[in-house]
Amino acid sequence: MAKARTQFICQSCGAVHNRWVGKCESCGEWNTIFEEDPTGGIGGGPGRVAKKGRPVALTSLSGDIEEAPRIETGISELDRATGGGFVRGSAVLIGGDPGIGKSTLLMQAAAALSRRGHRIIYVSGEEAVAQVRLRAQRLGAADTSVALAAETHVEDILATLAEGKRPDLVIIDSIQTLWSDMAESAPGTVTQVRAGVQALIRFAKQTGTAMVLVGHVTKDGQIAGPRVVEHMVDAVLYFEGDRGHHYRILRTVKNRFGPTDEIGVFEMGGSGLREVTNPSALFLSERNEKSPGAAVFAGVEGTRPVLVEVQALVAPTSLGTPRRAIVGWDSSRLAMILAVLEAHCGVRLGQHDVYLNIAGGYRISEPAADLAVASALVSSLAGLALPADCVYFGEISLSGAVRPVAHTAQRLKEADKLGFSAAVLPEASVEKPKGLPTRLKEIGSLPDLVALIAGS
Ligand code: TYD
Ligand code: MG
pTM for the whole thing? Predict the structure, then answer.
């Protein structure tokens, strides 16, 4: 037999290299390339006889197709993020930093589902059954009929799942502990994780079980990260949050059965995660309305509006190269706004350090936040506090124009609901709701904004 060929696989993104390199060209991570034997349980192997399939006509399928059958947890923040509940026969990956609360969330989901009469198996590869039970007790879930198993060997897990009555939903916590006889590398490596996940997904598809996989986000590259299996599963959700803050956000990044821009908001407390039905009120709860450099952004995440404070501090620098420190927003967008402020408004920040923070550890991905960021920057530089009852939204282009964004009505309605009586928004915004008492200040370009703040 030919000598087994090994490959060099990036543990972060799964890219294959034919020699060892220090930096993965595909994802840019350093020291994540490890040598592995890729012959890991994929496909049939020698001697397998090919089976002929029979394609069916698309038209013959019409009529009896319904919505994907879903398992609702009743935890509405979780159901919203999954697009209406877990789908039978599908695999969902829930990724996140270690300690962020993935196991807590899933134990609560398991308990809720079990109370609704579903059969749930929670497979823990990280903690012993006693430990998982202890957590369940803390979460008030110890009296439910969730079945626990502490296994890491994929073949054993599959045997456990096949025994007795078929489960409705299986939780695998976590994929990094999986190992399979089909692959030869060490547990936690790309080959092992892939082979294990593939076998579990196959089980899910064959039996109609919903499979929930937990994956830790890893930085050091010794174990494979969730990105390796992102393309294998039907939906990917990330559980995010700041250790210093209590709330957590479940963000959908891929969903074959639903929308991908939804978020679910939770608050971590002494007895587990609590749903936050009004995130805006939470994000704005610690506002200091009188200080310069703070602007409230009226954002929209998926189907829901979220108001959050953007904080900027602009201070003269003592360094040769001024500092740009950003938490919760994109650094290249900040660079762009600084450049536009300089080029079109004469606002020079080359001799200033710029710090930008989204309050409460929240992360904004919408370009609509441009206007709020620019307002916070100008307000801090000028030392002028912005009106406390005003919200900001709009996209800024390189020409300095302020562009309309989607969901104007939704943003304005949420602002009104939370007591904001004014809004600065792009000129030519459509779908403005009628009858709101909100004072609207429409601007067409960034210089208009600077003039507005300077005059306030
Ligand atoms: P955990 O769910 O174990 O995180 P993960 O599975 O993502 O690694 O949660 C870990 C953190 O959550 C831990 O620091 C303790 C905290 N926690 C609470 O604050 N309240 C609770 O009720 C529970 C169960 C955990
Ligand atoms: Mg855990």
Answer: 0.81
